[in-house]
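Need residues for this backbone.
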């Protein structure tokens, strides 16, 4: 069965970013795909140290739990990354994770190539587009496929639950989830 991994960079277990990813995951699941949301709550993801050992090991040499996530991504058909906006950019730990995931992929068979997905940004007022652009670089350099939606994948909210009031933002995320699922099924018709 096709599977999509959703990474949630929020440090809050039930925060807005997690709620947005849940909405996206529900749509993907309704389309018959398996989903797993992986939360960064309690994780201490380190930055890449450019040791290049991932080429020999087929995983990252840093032992902080990211290799378990990499294994799940390797076996998936899609990857969606959601981040809250901090000072106009994505959280540092998600960017560290993406850089390491990309490095492992590029040095061990380019397993990210042709996976379907994209980024989602959640913020109180602004910084969404810069955050989306920052995360998009990961998807583009790794030969991934990014479907669109009816607007950019951004939702407004500050206090937990406020994202539910952004009806246009949530509808954009639902359409994005539908497009991810539909494209994965078209690429993998026999699964």
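Answer:
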């Amino acid at each position: 069965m096709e599977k999509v991994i959703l990474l949630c960079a929020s440090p809050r277990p039930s925060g807005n970013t997690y709620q947005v990813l849940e909405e996206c995951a529900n749509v993907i699941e309704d389309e018959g795909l398996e989903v797993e949301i992986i939360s960064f709550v309690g994780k201490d993801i380190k930055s890449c140290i450019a040791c290049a050992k991932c080429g020999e090991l087929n995983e990252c040499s840093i032992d902080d739990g990211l290799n378990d996530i990499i294994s799940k991504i390797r076996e998936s058909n899609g990857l969606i990354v959601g981040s809250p906006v901090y000072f106009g950019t994505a959280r540092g730990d998600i960017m560290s994770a993406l850089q390491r995931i990309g490095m492992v992929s590029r040095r061990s068979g380019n397993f990210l190539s042709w996976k379907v997905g994209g980024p989602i940004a959640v913020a109180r007022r602004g910084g969404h587009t810069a955050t989306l652009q920052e995360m998009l670089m990961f998807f583009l350099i790794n030969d991934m496929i990014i479907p669109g939606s009816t607007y950019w994948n951004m939702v407004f909210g500050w206090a937990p639950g406020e994202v539910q009031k952004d009806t246009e933002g949530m509808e954009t995320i639902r359409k994005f989830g539908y497009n991810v699922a539909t494209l994965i099924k078209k690429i993998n018709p026999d699964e």
